[in-house]
Amino acid sequence: KGPKYNDVRFDVHDWLMAALARAEAAGIARERVILDPGIGFGKTVAHNLALLSHLALLHGTGCAILLGASRKRFIGTLGGADAADAAEARVPGSVAVALQGAAQGAQILRVHDVAETRQALALWRAMAAQQDRDQ
Question: N or C: which end of the chain has fewer CB within 10 A?
Answer without folding.
Answer: N
